[in-house]
Amino acid sequence: MNGTTGNGTTGWIARVFVPGDSAARAVGSDMVAAAIIKAFRAMGLACDLVRNGSRGLCWLEPMVEIETSEGRRLAFGPITAGDVEGLVETWTRADKALLHPLCLGPTDALVFLERQQRLVFARCGLIDPLSLDDYRCHGGLKGLEMALTQSAETVVETLTASGLRGRGGAGFPTGIKLKTVLQADGAQKYIVCNADEGDSGTFADRMIMEGDPFVVIEGMVIAGLACGASKGFIYIRSEYPDAIRVMGKAVDLARDVGIVGKSVLSSGKVFEIEIRVGAGSYVCGEETALLESLEGRRGVVRAKPPLPAHEGLFGQPSAVNNVISLASIPLILAKGAAFFRDFGIGRSRGTVPIQLAGNVRYPGLFEAAFGLTLGEIVEEIGGGTASGRPVRAVQVGGPLGAYFPRSLFDTVFDYEAFAARDGLIGHAGIVVFDDTVDLWEQARFAFEFCAIESCGKCTPCRIGSLRGVEVMDRLALALDPDADLALLGDLCNTMKFGSLCALGGFVPFPVMSAITHFPEDFRDRAKRQKTR
Ligand SMILES: Cc1cc2nc3c(=O)[nH]c(=O)nc-3n(C[C@H](O)[C@H](O)[C@H](O)COP(=O)(O)O)c2cc1C
Ligand code: SF4
User: Fold this and answer.
1) Would you say the CB of residue 350 lies under 6 angstroms from ligand 1?
2) Which stretch of DSSP H or E encloses residue 43?
3) In this structure, is the dihedral angle defined by the CA atoms of residues 293, 297, 299 and 304, taken in order, positive or negative?
């Protein structure tokens, strides 16, 4: 609603933002957007409506924002199409808007946002995802411009010094991976962006691809400059149609203005990007299975060595990196290694987009420096359970992550602290369960999931996961619980040390953590079954 309105009064709203992110669309943001345009039309006003990314406050979606002509943003949510008429009427004046019952106040004062340290997601929700002007105005392309003034070695050194570790799960230092590719011999090198995001309760990759796609592209181009790769692939899971669409448009726009293509920002350096869509297999997120899939074969894990950095896509040196790892690169180049390294704790540097899901009061994405405790994250930031019942367990790190009881809520969100407690951070997804959860069912599910998703290449995973389901079922019959629990321990050891990749190798995390921290769900279940 720019400038003078149809009835002669001056509008104070510059823009209206309705998220086009799939989490918001899933709860009706398309209908809200259509209703807003209709309401403005009925009032004889023009409406500058932007489909932005999500701010990550999922329980408030669709969260609509208005931007005043002074650049302030006011948030309203959750909004239904039915709320729109009355709501838009209040937008004619600031005092009226603030009094609307669904007004949440200034967006940047929302506690969930105010407490965050948004580095990677700084632009997400703020800008029009497909506007390169918006991207530039909010600091975009500064990292790439800086990288173009430096040698590949210097870019690698900066990334290594920043302490950035891969956000896909393994936490491997990104700078060292790129250095390995840089030093490898190969006529053609590749950057492969892993956007398969299969972990339960995770959505950070999707959110940034839909809300700030150019940062992923910029990160890939810089990674390419750092290791001598001239081609990148983004491998996106098929369940993300919106991300596929937005990333596709963003790549086209980036090509149109020379951010990617034959001469990156007129530097003479080549970097092309192609998008490929996966077919819905969890194991295709594993880097070597992903490469098989990219090459057009079934997603089966490759034995290592050779590492993908030496022999990856089409046998050429390749850096396979997670979306968030790549999206972290531009700001490190723009602001320097020390800026990023100053956030965090121990060997976990920078920020991490924590994703809160499951039975949690405030589900969403919370970016913060490493170092919060699990209790702070779940109880304070997440607000406990959505059901209002006590939290009993949280699973951290996806389907292969450990279950943590409340007694371990002092665990610090840091790779090493989680490993010390037989857990993992993974892609930083946290799924919350209340006191009605049955950990026997969850442990059984871990085996079942592995059996379904196993690529079948190695015996401990292919056969062990099925044997695990059988032992869990026998345990529930309470025939000989001690023997079955001992057998489960043995089986987990075999899978942990004998599996070729972390799909089979990490199943012991959910299974053994459930048995260790919630023994009553296994032994008492056995007793209960016996007395029936
Ligand atoms: C079964 C399995 C599934 C995985 N799924 C993903 C995934 O969806 N996304 C991802 O980035 N990494 C995933 N990984 C980790 C990748 O193999 C690899 O470590 C990662 O893409 C490297 O990128 P990073 O160093 O930036 O984290 C998975 C690993 C395993 C074993
Ligand atoms: S652990 Fe499972 S998924 Fe990994 S290689 Fe072996 S069979 Fe395949």
Assistant:
1) no
2) none
3) negative
- Of all protein residues, whose CA lies closest to atom 6 belonging to ligand 2? 458
Decide whether any atom of ligand 2 lies within 6 Å of the 284 Cβ: no
In order, the DSSP letters of 91-141 are: TTSHHHHHHSTTEEEEGGG-HHHHT---STTTTTTTS-TT-HHHHHHTTTT
Q: How many CB atoms lie within 10 A of CB 294?
A: 22
- Token pair of 63, please? 């969260």
**Using 50, 70 and 90 to split pLDDT, how confident is the model at 45?**
confident
| Dist. CA 97–CA 74, nearest whole Å | 9
Q: Ligand 1 centre from 196 Cα, in Å?
A: 8
pLDDT 10s digits, 256-296: 999 999 999 999 999 999 999 998 899 999 999 999 999 99
Q: Is 531's pLDDT higher than 60?
A: no
> Which atom from ligand 1 is nearest to the alpha carbon of 195?
9
Helix, strand, or coil here: 235?
strand
Q: How far apart are CA 88 and CA 84, in angstroms?
A: 6
Q: For residue 73, what is the enclosing H or E element?
A: strand 73-76
Strand partners, 261: 271
Nearest CA to ligand 1 atom 12: 168
DSSP 456-477: S-SHHHHHHHHHHHHHHHHHHH
The response to whether residue 502 sits with its C-beta less than 6 Å from ligand 1 reads: yes
Order of strands across the sheet that contains 231-236: 272-277, 231-236, 190-195, 318-322
Q: Which residue, 166, 208, 216, is CA-closest to 424?
A: 166
Beta-ladder partners of 429? 355
Q: Kindly identify the ligand whose nearest atom is closest to the C-alpha of 299.
A: 2
462 in ligand 2 pocket by Cβ < 6 Å? yes
Centroid of ligand 1 to alpha carbon of 171 (angstroms)? 10
Q: Is the CB of 456 under 6 A from ligand 2?
A: yes
**Would you say 236 and 196 are in contact if contact means Cβ atoms under 8 Å apart?**
yes
Single out the residue of 309, 346, 368, 369 nearest to residue 156, CA to CA: 309
Q: Tell how far the Cα of 320 is from the centroid of ligand 1, in angstroms.
A: 8
> Does the Cβ of 314 fall within 6 Å of ligand 1?
no
Report the alpha-carbon distance of residue 77 to residue 21 in Å, rounded: 15
Q: Which atom of ligand 2 has the smallest separation from the CA of 501? A: 4
Which atom of ligand 2 lies at the shortest distance from residue 453's CA?
A: 3
Find the radius of gyration of the CA atoms of the chain. 24
Give the pairing type, strands 403-405 and 391-396. Answer: antiparallel
DSSP assignment letter at 376: I
